[in-house]
Give the backbone structure.
Amino acid sequence: MEQATAGKALDDIVSAERSRGGGDHARSAHGDAWGALTRTHAAIVQRLQEMLSAADFPPLPWYEVLATVAEAPQEQMRMGDLAEALVITRGGLTKLVDRLVKAGLLERTFCETDRRVSYATLTPGGRDLLAEMRPAVIAELEVAFSANLSVAQANELRQTLDSVRGSACAS
Amino acid sequence: MEQATAGKALDDIVSAERSRGGGDHARSAHGDAWGALTRTHAAIVQRLQEMLSAADFPPLPWYEVLATVAEAPQEQMRMGDLAEALVITRGGLTKLVDRLVKAGLLERTFCETDRRVSYATLTPGGRDLLAEMRPAVIAELEVAFSANLSVAQANELRQTLDSVRGSACAS
DNA sequence: CAAAAACAGTTGTAGTTACAACTATTGCTT
DNA sequence: AAGCAATAGTTGTAACTACAACTGTTTTTG
């Protein structure tokens, strides 16, 4: 693997910098929280991708699509809603779904009453693959989170993040 | 802007699904925390990118490089350490730094004692641009975080995330 | 009801990224 | 000291993504 394997060096540098009271660019608590958020997110994504490729599973975005569609009523979702849920562009989603359709994991279905909309619908193959992948992903997340976080702390974390997102999305 | 603007629809679906006790695929607290983490991260990244492009600033990865290098001693950093801090591949960093060098924001310097290593070093132009961008980024983060989070909560959030990353990086 | 505006999704293109193979330098082994 | 392994960084290629322009459908409006 060519993936960079972690990020502790920067923290040392930053905290050293801060403790010697040096920089004229003191950072805010919120900025620090943002830094921790990005780095933690990237580290976990990296860990998941590493695990998936080692297990010969499709990449993480595929899993996210399958997991999201599977949770929707009737295992189908409008393209626009799916793009919004995954926080990617609609153009990008079109091509991502194309690949999943070609792999037989999704199929496109259409709306009778509004012929503009199309749905991404889970196929049996997609459902099966998701059932295979989910335990592996959950397990990986468990070791990442559960080692240092109780369930209560995890819930608190989720709540905090959701509230932040709520205000971040106040478009 | 073609960016998807938020993600509340999915939450509704998920919570509806959960409250009617329907799915045979109950999710764990840690899985929920992960979902909140990804979505919040993506939403804030989106918000920042939108702001930067509206203000005719370079994209977010450029800012992250500049900000990271600026915090290092002597405003310079080894390529490998920089890649690790940004949690991207070294190959990707090479080309990213290429672009920043071409824009006059960084320059490559070399190590006397070990001729393998090269440093990314901040130029005056890079320092100036960072000084322009930083307030804008900080302000954007303030509105995203500060609306729903006290400083104490932000610190707690940072601490929680750091501890998660600590175990996630136990390679 | 016809024209215009809004909406849902796709396509074309360019920029960015990751992955793997490669070069060059240093450290280790005997 | 010669040879082998490990390290630092770059490069080539393929895949992915965003952005903008486009087609087709529905809704609004004059």
